[in-house]
From TrEMBL, chain A:
Residues 434-466 are annotated as: Disordered. Residues 437-449, 455-466 have a biased composition (Polar residues). This is Vacuolar fusion protein MON1 homolog. Plays an important role in membrane trafficking through the secretory apparatus. Residues 320-426 form the FUZ/MON1/HPS1 third Longin domain. Residues 29-151 form the FUZ/MON1/HPS1 first Longin domain. The lineage of its organism: Eukaryota, Metazoa, Chordata, Craniata, Vertebrata. One of its GO terms (cellular component) is Mon1-Ccz1 complex. Residues 190-291 form the FUZ/MON1/HPS1 second Longin domain.
TrEMBL record, chain B:
This is Ras-related protein Rab-20. Its cofactor is Mg(2+). GO terms for molecular function: G protein activity; GTP binding; metal ion binding. Keywords: Cytoplasmic vesicle, Golgi apparatus, GTP-binding, Hydrolase, Lipoprotein, Magnesium, Membrane, Metal-binding, Nucleotide-binding, Prenylation, Protein transport, Transport. GO terms for cellular component: Golgi apparatus; phagocytic vesicle membrane. Belongs to the small GTPase superfamily. Rab family. It comes from Pleuronectes platessa. One of its GO terms (biological process) is protein transport. CDD domains: Rab20. Its EC number is 3.6.5.2.
Amino acid sequence: MEAGTQEMPAFMTNRDEDVTSDSWRQHRKHVFVLSEAGKPIYSRYGSEEALSSTMGVMMALVSFVQSGDNIIRSVYSELHTVVFLQKGPLVLVCVSNSRQSEEQLRGELLYVYYQIISMLTQASISRIFEHKKNYDLRRLLAGSEKILDGLLNLVDSDPSFLLTAIHCLPLASSLRDSLSQILQKAITPNLVFSILVAKNQLLTIVQEKTVIEDARLEPADVHLLLNLIGASSAFQAGEIWTPICLPLFNPDCYFYAYISYLDPPECTVCLLLLSTDKEAFYAVADCKRKIEEAMVAQNALSLIAKAHSYSVSQVGVSDLRHFMYKPFDVPDTYRQLTQFTSPEMEAPYSSEEEKMRLLDLYRYMHSRIHSSTRPLKLIYHVAERETLLAWVTSKFELYTCFSPLVTKACAITAITKLLRWIKKEEERLFIRYPPKYSTTPNPSKSSRGGKSDQQDSTENGFLTLL
Amino acid sequence: MPEGSKMKKPDVKVVLLGDMNVGKTSLLHRYTERKFKDTVSTVGGAFFLKQWGPYNISIWDTAGREQFHGLGSMYCRGASAVILTYDVTNWQSLAELEERFLSLTDTANQDCIYAIVGNKADLTDPKAQLSHDSIGVSEDQTQCEEEMTEPQILSACPTPPASPESLSGLILHKQVAHEDAVAFYGRILRYKGLEDKSSLPPEKMCFETSAKTGYNVDALFETLFDLVLPSILRKRNENQESPTVDLEVCRGAGGRRARSTCC
């Protein structure tokens, strides 16, 4: 696609990288997406054109193994792990020297796939490639590379993806409840999710009743939404209206997302409203007006501004440097919204390198716990500069990081104290009861609305609720 | 939800259309924020309200990506003005306007006005390379465009660059001539069936702009806003007349006609 390459602006440095250079080879994690016909679709570093022969080799590997009625899953070399994932007409490849497990890398490729689906839907991708096997999907994805780049950066730096759980901002439960009530009152027909986000963490989420009965909102879908917010914040004074598919909810249909910041120009508090009606922009924008007014009346913005993540020192356990706790037993929420809690990463993990090193240790612990060949329930790992303990029960999954001199007995006592502290703070750390509202039109109306919806869904694959 | 409509009701709707990377968001950003920013690709459409005198103008900045075409007609519904944007250094971007974007404007108002805007003029045109940041300059811009009085612009520029090349380094080949845009404008009028009527002349509706330097950006938006004023006023008048009066007028006219045929 000539136009696309010509227009690639100079500031997209990832794309400009020389793919023959040593620095290109040394990237920690490469991700490539190609079509079954071997056409390049996306590369995290370097332009797809420059890499077309590399991707050709990848496709040759895939086809060669396929011709023997087999599926290529991974290739190991001394330094690199190459992981393949085939999803419909797309082939995703990760080349990593991060020492992550194959399962984790495949999980990350799945996120990349979901992000592509969130923009195009699975149905339309299948339709396109059925129609034309050598279609250049970049025609449709051009301009979305930044969203994929952003996702991969998040996957590397945010443990939410590793844990497939949502990190919510700690908040006094009374404040969280009043925010939920504000969202619950500002509704319009066909509104299905109202989500409030601050500092890239969830404040509260309100869902349509029937949606909850039908299906739950998967953490991965929420991650994609949060990534979309991050990627669309270029022009923060405006109100965004865009189609988005939540692949785990329904991979073939679109929701319409309304995104707007409530506190310009700081732009830390973001409102996201999802509707199933593509024409509902003005009605949904009115909901925002109501939410805004209610928040001003309750002084909610300044209260949110005061909310922040917590320090591990608040737990009051010496030697404990950091932890990640993912409960399975918070009433009502596990089935609906898997969450985890974690303190700020503080010294000695304040630099980017050290943060990454701690995350890598967690990833190692996670891979041992979730090993497909030999899963573990408990692992105590003495590393060079710290000691880690990971523990999975039927009620929670816990990763802890201690100073290197901690003893096993000390660590166990510390974890007992930690669990007690979390129990005490549970109300503040988690969204306990995701509230609901009902916005589906009443039956008399829905017969008419339903018809036009149906037409929409056959034409464009848009989601119909009823 | 009529009870919730406390928001300032927009009087008119303006829509920015065009292929990806031609600089739609940058144009709007230059106009509203008075500065240039390398923005990331727009997702879907972004909605802005702009106060223009006593009027509220809503502006839809849309994504150029084909992926979002499904919503194009929704963004254009009821539009009073559509800004069709291309990149002067990219012939294909003008062709795309005709192939992909023109049909999206079918849902716009009958009396919708169309502006053709060639952005990134700073890459091909020395006079567009000069900074147009200060508000004072914007007053002169229409004049500058017409008369190309360079000294005038230079005097408004605090530190005039020694040569135009010093700003961007090189002059790119201009792929779309002004005449191409004018010809396209003619085809739009034909497509809309607006020929020969008192439609706006192409020299008034074809712009070359630079979001980077601000060249002609204010002139573009302000010309358009001025031009949509009549449509605002017409709409307001329509709203003032109550529907019963309308009915009476219709019935009266119909009745008279009926009688006349009778006799």
